[in-house]
Automatic annotation (TrEMBL):
Residues 173-496 form the Kinesin motor domain. One of its GO terms (biological process) is spindle assembly. It holds the Pfam family Kinesin. One of its GO terms (molecular function) is microtubule binding. InterPro entries: Kinesin-like_fam, Kinesin_motor_CS, Kinesin_motor_dom, Kinesin_motor_dom_sf, P-loop_NTPase. This is Kinesin-like protein. ATP binds at G256, Q257, T258, G259, T260, G261, K262, T263. Keywords: ATP-binding, Coiled coil, Hydrolase, Microtubule, Motor protein, Nucleotide-binding. One of its GO terms (cellular component) is kinesin complex. Belongs to the TRAFAC class myosin-kinesin ATPase superfamily. Kinesin family. KIN-14 subfamily. Residues 574-589 have a biased composition (Basic and acidic residues). Residues 1-73, 574-621, 630-649 are annotated as: Disordered. Residues 599-611 have a biased composition (Polar residues).
Length: 826
């Protein structure tokens, strides 16, 4: 901007409006004031236009010529100049236009207004322009920030309120609303004044001012003044009412001196309905709103506690003698059995019920109230809900209680029945006070059962429900005493902590079912775990058994193979024997000696010179006694030392050389088998003393082959050497020990064998078997089928096991000792 134009502009424009320009960030109010004063010392806020250079010169001269006159003015302006200077400094140092660096400005020691203005010239205008731009820029920058901060602040406030409410809920305090009724016309007529001061801006506080000197503040969750209507009261109550729809138990009760508006608050009047009606209206509204997801059903019961008796106000029979008692449910809640629970489907139905109940309520006239409630009235709304998606059920109660008024008997002037009622009322209210005190001081024992009222409200006062108390007060100076005691009581109630936050109530039937299901589930889980364990065990067992089975299978296969080999071998041997037999028969036929009479006579028993039939027969051979020359039997058994073996043991008599064979009863499951035995000598080398007692067996020897071999080929068996019954037990085994070639004590001497002597083995006859090789006949305990015998458990069929069992060998024959079963010869 050019200097001329600035000067002209300045002169033509009388209002450059410096005042706003003076309110700068960082400046103090004094500075601002100083700047304003500087701009307009005479009181005019608009500064004088900057003088033109010419004017400045003239003025300079004038200043110089009239110093004395200007002296006080200069002094006054000194501070102003200083302010201006600091202002300029603040805006200075801005590049070329900076006035700080100006040597001229620095020369001015005590700048006064004209000097400064003259000096500023166009700089002032530039600065103003810059300042305005900065202000605009600043506001542009700050506005969104300001709005953001403002919003943040509002949000924070809301959050703080929410957190506070949450804190209150967590603490579980009973919420207390205070409602003060207006002064009645009666009171006004009496000239009563109000002792209660309520500041409408302070929603939670009231001052109790009984006189000019006394003033006591009380704090509640909300304070309603005389001008607050039913709607305002209910709008604060709605959140508590809504909780019952979420499954919480709720209790709302009104307490206060008689005539203070308890019934007015709870019941209201038809044209101005109270909490009861509005609460139920709200329940239906919420139900309608949630109908898509939750199905609600409502029922209502109305009762009163009159003179410590419970009366059902919905009982149409109005039977006064009907006795209702409080019982404790399994879940710890209190229940009045026999109480009418009327279902309600719409708000009209609600009003009908409420009206019906109110009509039945006991009321009477007192000095304090024309229509005074003489009982505690309780409306219980039961809300049942079922979620349509999750099928979760809940059942909750909402108690709406209008207590009877506390009253001073003397003041109310009651007598007779009214007096009795008052005493009961006061007694129960005092019990309520005791309960509250006990709860507030966290006593272990809460005296709920001292009155029917406290017993009924047990779970609503100290339990897990949301409680709201209206303390009703009268503003009248006449009632200041009662008002103060009500306020004190309400404060105590407010301090009560419920303990844990209110809990959602599940439907008892549903929860019982759920409990049963949970128990069943737990039981099944336990069983499952046990089954799993046993299954794992079985799997382990199965795996190990499978292993064993596989091993056994392999062994069986081996044994079967061995068995097949043996069978093959036996067939071969049988064939050979058959051949031998045929050959020997043929040769015998061709060289048969002539028949000669025999002097032998048949033994007493049945004699048979032929081999006994094969099969499970048992034979008892009377072994031929050893005879001396005169045919006198001598002792066969162990002779005593010194005994003459040839000494006759009895009367000499003729005896048959043929063995006496007596058939003994066949024992089932016994069989005989035969085996090719090595020669006696070999045999003796095979057997040792200990093993000799073991039974001898012929594995897989065909049963029919026994007959072919003949009994006469079996010396050493009981048939050969033992006169007693065949004994297959280990004790008898010693008798089966034989020494065919030598003089065994059980075998007949070779010359005396008689016809037996002639019966040589087919092997001997055919010369196939080594000299002295015999067939051994043994008796086994059990006849085991081939497949059983082939089992590897027997051992002898398993080559590996058999090797371990071998106790002797003779040619092809092996003598094995199976410790588990028996000793065998193969
Ligand atoms: N907030 C209010 N606004 C206008 N009138 C009120 C209010 N509160 C109470 N009243 C009036 O005061 C009178 C007494 O009220 P109410 O019967 O409800 O008292 P109360 O506490 O129930 O008495 P009591 O304990 O004897 O039954 C009634 O006529 C009622 O209309």
């Amino acid at each position: 901007m050019e200097p001329d134009r600035v000067a002209a502009g300045a002169s033509s424009s009388p209002q450059p409006s410096p005042a706003p320009a003076m309110f700068l960030p960082g400046q103090t109010r004094d500075h601002e004031r100083g700047a304003v004063d500087c701009a307009d010392p005479g009181g005019d806020l608009n500064p004088a236009p900057p003088p033109s250079p010419q004017q400045a010169t003239v003025e300079d001269a004038a200043v110089g010529g009239d110093v004395e006159q200007e002296e006080p003015k200069k002094e006054a302006m000194a501070g102003v100049g200083e302010a201006l200077r600091s202002f300029m400094e603040e805006f200075g140092d801005q590049g070329e236009d900076s006035i700080i660096l100006s040597p001229r400005l620095q020369e001015i020691c005590t700048p006064d207004r004209p000097t400064a203005l003259r000096f500023l010239g166009k700089k002032y205008n530039n600065l103003m322009e810059r300042y305005k731009k900065q202000v605009v820029k600043c506001s542009e920058e700050c506005d969104p920030r300001y709005n953001g901060l403002k919003k943040k602040y509002t949000d924070e406030c809301a959050e703080r309120r929410r957190l506070y409410n949450e804190l209150i809920e967590l603490r579980g305090n009973i919420r207390v609303f205070c409602r003060c009724r207006p002064l009645s016309s009666n009171e006004l007529a009496r000239g009563c004044s109000s002792v209660v001061e309520i500041d409408s801006s302070q929603e939670t506080e009231l001052q109790f001012v009984p006189n000019e000197k006394e003033r006591k503040p009380f704090k509640f969750d909300h304070v309603f003044g005389p001008e607050d209507d039913q709607e305002a009261v209910f709008s604060e109550t709605v959140p508590v009412v809504g909780s019952v729809m979420d499954g919480f138990n709720v209790c709302i009760f009104a307490y206060g001196q008689t005539g203070t508006g308890k019934t007015f608050t709870m019941e209201g009047v038809p044209e101005n309905r109270g909490v009861n009606y509005r609460a139920l209206e709200e329940l239906f509204r919420i139900s309608e709103k949630r109908s898509a997801s939750v199905a609600y059903t409502f029922s209502v019961s109305i009762l009163e506690v009159y003179n410590e008796k419970i009366r059902d106000l919905l009982d149409e029979s109005n039977d006064q003698s009907k006795r209702l008692d409080i019982k404790q449910n399994a879940d710890g809640t209190q229940e009045v059995h026999g109480l009418v629970e009327a279902p309600i489907y719409n708000i009209d139905g609600v009003w009908e019920k409420l009206k019906f109940g109110a009509q039945n309520r006991s009321v009477g006239s007192t000095n304090a109230n024309e229509l005074s409630s003489r009982s505690h009235s309780l409306v219980r709304v039961t809300v049942r809900s079922e979620h349509l998606v999750t099928y979760q059920r809940s059942r909750s109660h909402m108690w709406l209680v209008d207590l009877a008024g506390s009253e001073r008997i003397a003041k109310t002037g009651v007598e007779g029945d009214r007096l009795k009622e008052s005493q009961f009322i006061n007694k129960s209210l005092s019990a309520l006070g005791d309960v509250i005190s006990a709860l507030a001081s966290k006593n272990s024992h809460i005296p709920y059962r001292n009155s029917k009222l406290t017993h009924l409200l047990q779970s609503s006062l100290g339990g897990d429900c949301k409680t709201l108390m209206f303390v009703q007060i009268s503003p009248s100076s006449m009632d200041s005493g009662e008002t103060l005691s009500s306020l004190n009581f309400a404060s105590r109630v407010r301090a009560v902590e419920h303990g844990p936050a209110a809990r959602k109530q599940a439907d008892p039937a549903g929860s019982l079912k759920l409990k049963q299901m949970t128990e069943k589930l737990q039981h099944e889980e336990k069983e499952n775990a046990q089954l799993n364990q046993s299954l794992q065990l079985m799997q382990l067992k199965y795996a190990s058994r499978e292993n064993v089975f596989r091993t056994l299978n392999e062994k069986v296969k081996d044994a079967e193979q061995a068995c097949r080999n043996y069978q093959q071998r036996i067939r071969e041997l049988e064939n050979e024997l058959g051949n031998e037999k045929r050959a020997s028969r043929d040769s015998a036929r061709s060289s048969r000696p002539p028949l000669v009479p025999t002097r032998q006579r048949q033994p007493q028993g049945r004699t048979n010179s032929f081999a006994p039939p094969s099969g499970p027969s048992r034979w008892r051979l009377k072994a031929p006694a050893k005879h001396n020359k005169e045919n006198i039997p001598v002792a066969m058994n162990k002779p005593n030392a010194g005994d003459d073996p040839n000494k006759p043991v009895g009367r000499a008599r003729r005896v048959s050389l043929a063995p006496v064979i007596r058939q003994i009863p066949i024992q089932p499951k016994r069989r005989s088998s035969m085996a090719v035995l090595p020669s006696v000598r070999e045999h003796l080398s095979v057997l040792n003393d200990k093993k000799a007692g073991s039974r001898l067996s012929q594995a897989n020897m065909a049963r029919g082959s026994l007959g072919a071999f003949g009994l006469n080929l079996v010396p050493g068996t009981p048939l050969a050497g033992h006169g007693g019954p065949v004994d297959a037990t280990p004790d008898g085994a010693k008798f089966r020990r034989f020494d065919f070639g030598s003089s065994s004590k059980f075998t007949s001497p070779a010359p005396n064998v008689g016809m037996w002597n002639k019966m040589v083995t087919p092997q001997q006859k055919l010369g196939m078997a080594p000299a002295g090789a015999k067939l051994c006949f043994s008796i086994q305990k059990r006849v085991t089928p081939p497949h059983v015998r082939a089992k590897p458990g027997l051992g002898i069929f398993d080559p590996a096991l058999r090797e371990n069992m071998v106790v002797g060998r003779a040619g092809n024959a092996l003598r094995v000792l199976n410790p588990k079963r028996r000793q065998s010869v193969i």
